[in-house]
Amino acid sequence: MNSKDSGSMAALLQHQQQAHKLQMLVTVAQRRERIQQVINLLVEHHQAFAEAIEADFNGRSQGFSIMNDVLGSLASLKYTRDNLEPWLKSESREVFAPYDQLGSTARVEYQPKGSVGIIGTWNAPLYTLFAPLACVLGAGNRAILKPSEVTPKTAALVAQLFAKHIDPLLVSVVTGGADTGAKFSELPFDHLVFTGSTQVGKKIMAAAAKNLVPVTLELGGKSPAVLSQDCDLSESCKRLALAKSNNGGQVCVSPDIVYVPRNKLDQVAALLLENFRHFYPEITHNPDFVPSVNRQHCQRVVDLVEQARDAGCQVLSSHEVANLAELVTSDKRLPLQLVISPDKELDIMQQEIFGAALVLLPYDDIDGVINDINSRAKPLALYYFGENDAELSKLLANTSSGGVAVNDCLMHAAMHDAPFGGVGASGMGHYHGREGFLAFSHQRTVFVAPKHDPRGEWGLLPPHHDQFKAMMVAQVTAD
To answer: Counting Cβ atoms within 10 Å, is residue 13 exposed (0-12), middle (13-18) or buried (19+)?
Structure first.
């Protein structure tokens, strides 16, 4: 559905919600069958999807897109499909005394919410739609997808294939630009999922609040990595360089700032650049390296680096480049730029980089690192490299982040049996696995009363006798 008309989108949502009301009970078999339809669509058309993403990025490797978006999406869908049954079972809860002795029971049931809106983003144009969709369908809901307009060919293909293969009352697709996205977020969904920037996430939440729509926001932030004094520098820098190069640095959990022991700053910088060159001997036209999605995003990263350079920061490059700006108009692949000790006021310390640049900050003790991390908004990810358990425990106990990986980067976000999401400015809510199922389910308490109601015998029913207050006061204790 290609529409900027909020009326047509509202009508589509209304049709889905009506269909939900007519079939609120969705069996395990039906949920699995719905998920399987999406799996089959991805499997059958994986090559077309890879070609569309390659065209949108003007050079993203089809192999990378299949690994990142197709296989990543399939893994989420299959995990939900294969683990769904025990999640649906109602859960018994303890009844308060003395009703627990009178035959009362209580349970929590997991009920579909209805129709869920999912707004994806361009850096993982399939995964940011299908990973939450797995949990949405697993919870028995219907969905309307809004792919990113920054990857228009992929968005159009998603819309075309869903319209052809999937009942629109189950999953439908709306395409369009920022205006469409704004109108989409104002619709009275039963839940709304957004992946993107913190700035836009605030607008999404404000729009959803008009209809009291619950939201899941997967945002980002400046995810820090801490290198301890005792870490294996060679292996740590290899993994950092690999993580920072993933998708050309265009990953929400990409490391943005690396805290380096002051006495090892030069060694770390050299190892990061060496490892990056090992993975990518050439940058320009290298099919293994994902280019910036468009010139605007490429120029934004260049501007962050050049502002720091102009402010007097040392900037080291993995490859010799006469003029970074020239790469913006060529194939949009940037060599890794290491920016050393920039001032906090510079844009590269304020904005999520989302590209092939990395800030190195020397430190003297872990307390200084903790204070600096806590001086900024809570990040989506935190990384620690080292074997000092006491130091790691102190770092984890005194900082907050959406997730953590130790001695590697990005890996926690690939966990199926663990929640993925942010905190504070990096987002709210979770998906993946059972936590995703719970996020998109209404958890309804069902209390079953005893046959005999003893409240009259206990003197609790009106008209209250003159000792009623004394009876209540007698129970006000600190025990």
So the answer is: buried
pLDDT digits (tens, 9 = 90+) for 407-445: 999 999 999 999 999 999 999 999 999 999 999 999 999
**pTM (two decimals):** 0.95
Give dist(CA 178, CA 183) in Å, integer. Answer: 9
Q: What is the H or E stretch that residue 91 is in?
A: strand 91-92
Of the candidates 197, 147, 198, 194, the one whose C-alpha atom is nearest the C-alpha of residue 174 is 147
Cα–Cα dist 456/464, whole Å: 10
Instruction: Provide the token pair at 212.
Output: 């009291």
Q: Is 316 exposed, middle or buried (0-12, 13-18, 19+ CB in 10 A)?
A: middle
Q: How far is CA 280 from CA 6, 240, 335, in A?
A: 46, 14, 9
- Of 300, 333, 297, 293, residue with least CA distance to 317: 333
Residues catalogued as catalytic: 218, 252
Cis peptide leading into residue 463 (ω within 30°): yes
Q: How far is CA 301 from CA 106, 185, 193, in A?
A: 55, 28, 27
